[in-house]
Q: What sequence folds into this?
C-alpha cells in the first residue's frame, strides 16, 4: 500500500518538507537537484564550498540536512569583504563524489535545474 502514488506523494511531502518540490522534480526524471555547500573549513580567510549534483541526502529533526552526497563536484572559495561576497573557483576537473556530514556543513543552497527538453 505504501507504494501507491497517492500515499507516497503525501508521505514524501511530510518526509521532505521544504525539499518536496525539488525531490518531486528529480523523481519525475526531468530535473537535477544541484546543491551549493558552504563548509566550516576556512583557508586564508576564505570559506571552502562545493557545488554538485545531489545523489543522496538525509533529513533529521526539523527538516535539517544531516548528510549530503554529491557527484560531479566543483570546489570553490567564498571571500567576504566590505564589497560583498565573491566566489573563486578552485578545480578545473570535477571531483567524482563527495559526502558531507552535518558537522561539516555551515549552509546549503538548493537549485533545481530542468534537463534539456523537459516540459516545464
A:
Amino acid at each position: 500500500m505504501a507504494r501507491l502514488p497517492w500515499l507516497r506523494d503525501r508521505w514524501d511531502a511530510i518526509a521532505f518538507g521544504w525539499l518536496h518540490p525539488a525531490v518531486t522534480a528529480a523523481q519525475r526524471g526531468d530535473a537535477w537537484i544541484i546543491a551549493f555547500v558552504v563548509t566550516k573549513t576556512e583557508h586564508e580567510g576564505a570559506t571552502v564550498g562545493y557545488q554538485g549534483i545531489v545523489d543522496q541526502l538525509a533529513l533529521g529533526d526539523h527538516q535539517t540536512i544531516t548528510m549530503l552526497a554529491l557527484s560531479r563536484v566543483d570546489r570553490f572559495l567564498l571571500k567576504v569583504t566590505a564589497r560583498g561576497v565573491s566566489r573563486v573557483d578552485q578545480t578545473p576537473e570535477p571531483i567524482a563524489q563527495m559526502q558531507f556530514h552535518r558537522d561539516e556543513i555551515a549552509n546549503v543552497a538548493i537549485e533545481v535545474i530542468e534537463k534539456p527538453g523537459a516540459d516545464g
